[in-house]
User: Fold this.
Amino acid sequence: MTRLFHVNRSPEDFRILDEAFSRYSQILSDAAERGLANGDPIMTEIAEKLKGLDFADDP
Assistant:
């Protein structure tokens, strides 16, 4: 966690942080998909609201 607060990060710090955030992102994605698969009402509501979003300039 300390690497996150360094002002002058080394290439190794960036590599480790990228890996950590990638893993965290996967955990969140897995949890969301599991919630949807189980019919969680909150996840279903969020998914429905996200379907309605449209950003023309979003890659």
About this structure: The chain has a mean pLDDT of 89. The helical segments are 11-37, 41-51. The chain has one domain: 7-51.
